[in-house]
Design a protein that fits this description.
Blueprint: E1 5-8, E2 11-13, E3 19-21, E4 28-31, H1 66-69, E5 86-89, H2 91-95, E6 99-100, H3 119-127, E7 132-136, E8 146-167, E9 172-193, E10 198-205, E11 212-221, E12 226-233, E13 238-247, E14 253-262, E15 267-276, E16 282-291, E17 297-306, E18 314-323, E19 329-338, E20 345-353, H4 357-364, H5 370-386, H6 392-408
Parallel strand pairs: 7-8, 8-9, 9-10, 9-11, 10-12, 11-13, 12-14, 13-15, 14-16, 15-17, 16-18, 17-19, 18-20
Antiparallel strand pairs: 1-4, 2-3, 5-8, 6-7
Helix pairs in contact: 4-5, 5-6
């Protein structure tokens, strides 16, 4: 694997004894003429200045809406008090005893596995001094989803935050991050699934149309542990989520699922990374998108790395996009790196297109009107992701959201063959 740019920093020991990067250390950056092409080769740093201002020419920004994301590149502190960008509702989680104090950058657990990969994540680390830390105690099963409600207080409000979700050994839980309202909001989510734990994390983005949101989700999964990570994006002007999962422990497994429905003028983006590191790990990546209206755009970049020691790995990634009208754009780029020949299986797939005429003909031939037939095809296409979430109340709500999105675009002309 060729690496064009790297950074190093001093390390200290955390309370748990794991190596941790010192946020105050200045990184050493070595450059070459060869651009970074692989996700594993990208530079990392806690220092925002190490990344510079994105121009849209960088490999990790070239498909992003850099112009609208620009407010998140500004090195300024999170607004507080009456001018705060996000109002948090975690009262139920705190009352249940799952919220633990996390003050300052050196708080226990924080930064144990998280290292920023771009300037927005580095700024969120720098200015999100205190973290929201949810911890599931060892061996405990939490039956009801733990819901964090994040409500944007206005498009002119600028905020950053760091969230830690920690599942102790043998625990079982589901955490939902719900985003509504409007703000310019940069967010880091650090997910740690200890040995034998089973965790589901769902991020739902139902922002207003003028919201700008960039999030970096980084997860590590221990031995015989499992993580289901789901990203659902329906609202927001620009929503850019970069989820990564490291299957570090022997026998660890994970599912990375995503659903995006882009309307006119929306830019919904996910840059997904699954790193198989441990022996006999299993991973599945499935993201689906639907687009309607002029200027609607989705971006999906899926990177899978099967490391040298990840023998016996079974991995698959797929992205599918359904184009509902002309004037939309869906970018889909799957990448697969394999560094060992001893694997159970690995593959990837990508498909973007308009309605299947045969499906529509089949439904219409049975007396179903064309408009209803189109609705059934879209619902059936997207519900595969919804039904894998595993939270009945949320699944019902998202199904209604899909119906509302379809109704919103009912008056738009369907995509032509040329537009597909």
């Amino acid at each position: 694997m060729t690496t064009a740019e790297t950074s190093t920093a001093d390390t200290t020991e955390t309370a748990a004894g794991a190596a941790r990067t010192d946020p105050g250390a200045a990184p050493r950056r070595e450059r070459s003429a060869v651009p970074v092409q692989t996700r594993s080769g990208r530079p990392t740093s806690f220092d925002p200045d190490a990344f510079g201002m994105p121009t849209g020419r960088e490999v990790n920004w070239k498909l992003s809406d850099v112009q609208r994301l620009a407010p998140l590149f500004v090195d300024e502190a999170t607004e507080t008090g009456e001018a705060q960008a996000i109002a948090y509702d975690v009262a139920a989680i705190e009352a249940a005893g799952y919220l633990v104090p996390s003050k300052g950058h050196d708080a226990p657990v924080r930064g144990e596995i998280f290292v920023p990969e771009d300037v927005t994540a580095a700024l969120a680390w720098k200015h999100g001094e205190d973290a929201l830390h949810i911890r599931i105690p060892e061996g405990e099963t939490v039956d009801e989803p733990l819901v964090v409600r994040l409500v944007g207080q206005g498009a002119d409000r600028h905020g950053q935050a760091h969230v830690v979700i920690e599942a102790q050994p043998g625990s079982v839980a589901t955490v939902v991050l719900e985003h509504t309202g409007s703000a310019a909001y940069a967010q880091n989510v650090e997910i740690i699934v200890r040995d034998g734990a089973r965790l589901t994390v769902v991020a739902v983005h139902e922002w207003e149309d003028d919201a700008v949101h960039a999030a970096a989700h980084q997860a590590v999964v221990g031995a015989r542990a499992y993580l289901k990570h789901v990203v659902v994006s329906f609202g927001g002007g620009v929503v850019r989520v970069n989820p990564s999962m490291r299957l570090a422990g022997e026998g660890s497994s994970g599912d990375m699922l995503g659903l995006a429905f882009a309307d006119a003028g929306q830019h919904l983006e996910s840059q997904v990374y699954m790193h198989h590191e441990g022996v006999a790990t299993k991973g599945d990546v499935l993201y689906k998108g639907a687009l309607q209206g002029k200027g609607a755009r989705t971006v999906w970049i899926g990177d899978v790395l099967i490391g040298h020691g990840a023998t016996g790995t079974d991995s698959y990634e797929k992205n599918q996009n359904l184009v509902l009208t002309d004037g939309t754009r869906a970018d889909s780029i799957p990448n697969l790196e394999i560094e060992t020949g001893d694997i159970a299986g690995a593959g990837h797939a990508s498909a973007t297109g308009r309605f299947d005429d045969e499906q529509l003909f089949y439904l219409q031939a049975r007396g179903i009107p064309e408009e209803q037939a189109r609705r059934l095809v879209v619902v059936g296409f997207l519900m595969e992701i919804v039904q894998r979430i595993g939270i009945p109340a949320l699944e019902e709500r998202l199904a209604a959201d899909i119906e509302a999105e379809i109704a919103r675009g009912a008056g738009l002309a369907p995509a032509s063959r040329a537009g597909a």
